[in-house]
Amino acid sequence: MEIKINAPITEEQAMTLNAGDIVLLSGEIYTARDAAHKRLVELIEDGKELPIELMDQIIYYVGPTPPKPGQVIGSAGPTTSYRMDSYAPKLLDLGLRGMIGKGARDVNVIQSMIKNKAIYFGAIGGAAALTAKCIKESELIAYEDLGAEAIRKLTVIDMPLVVVIDANGNNLYEIGQKEYLNTLNSK
Questions:
Q1: Which residues form the Fe-S hydro-lyase tartrate dehydratase beta-type catalytic domain (predicted)?
Q2: How many structural domains is the chain composed of?
Q3: Out of 29, 51, 88, 96, which could bridge 58 as a Cys pair, Cβ 3.0 to 4.6 Å?
Q4: What is the CATH number of the domain that holds 12?
Q5: Which residues are catalytic?
């Protein structure tokens, strides 16, 4: 069953999602990769204002390609998430409610997700052109000098995602591995 949700999402909404849920996300989300995360954390550490409000927001780890004529955005596939792991807990502590990327997360990120009731969504790697079709608007917000890694606000409609790690720390990668191993052992 697909669950339709609208961004931004609240703590209460995040708590209803479970590892393995298939989600169609609509609404406004932000993009940021490691260079932008580094700058955001430096601002936090210096006690300065951030260029975006993090409370209940979702950040998509993506560095989209330039759009072709008539397109809102170019290919927009997920970036490997571990590159943001050293920065994510500080952003989660400020209310970041969701992250979209691909790959496993560090134990410190997962503990911070549990503490802050946040979700880690997996986007489909290798389907960047298809994902881009779900993006209806793209607005540059900060760090234009970073090019593809600048912070953008995206308006998405029915972006297909999977809840990889839920707000209780249930991890689809671990669940799937255990289920697979159980099927091998039962033969």
A1: 2-174
A2: 1
A3: 29
A4: 3.20.130.10
A5: 37
Residues 6+ apart with CB under 8 A from 143: 35, 36, 39, 51, 149, 150, 151
Whole-model pTM: value is 0.93
- With tokens 């802050």, the residue in question is 116
DSSP 78-139: BPBGGGGTTTHHHHHHTT--EEEEBS---HHHHHHHHHHT-EEEEP-TT-HHHHHTTEEEEE
**Which domain, by its residues, includes 144?**
2-185
Which pLDDT tens digit goes with each residue over 40-84? Answer: 999 999 999 999 999 999 999 999 888 888 889 988 989 999 999
* Contact of 164 with 173, CB cutoff 8 Å: yes
- d(C-alpha 15, C-alpha 64), whole Å: 30
Query: What are the pLDDT digits (tens) for 26-48?
Result: 999 999 999 999 999 999 999 99
Question: What single letter denotes the amino acid at residue 46?
Answer: D
- Can you read off the two tokens belonging to residue 51? 């260029």
Nearest by Cα to 100 from 140, 64, 73, 137: 64
Cα separation, 80 vs 125, in Å, equals: 9
Q: Is the peptide bond before 89 cis (omega within 30 degrees of 0)?
A: no
Q: From 122, 116, 100, 114, select the one nearest 176 (Cα to Cα).
A: 122
For residues 143 and 151, the answer to whether their CB atoms sit within 8 Å is: yes
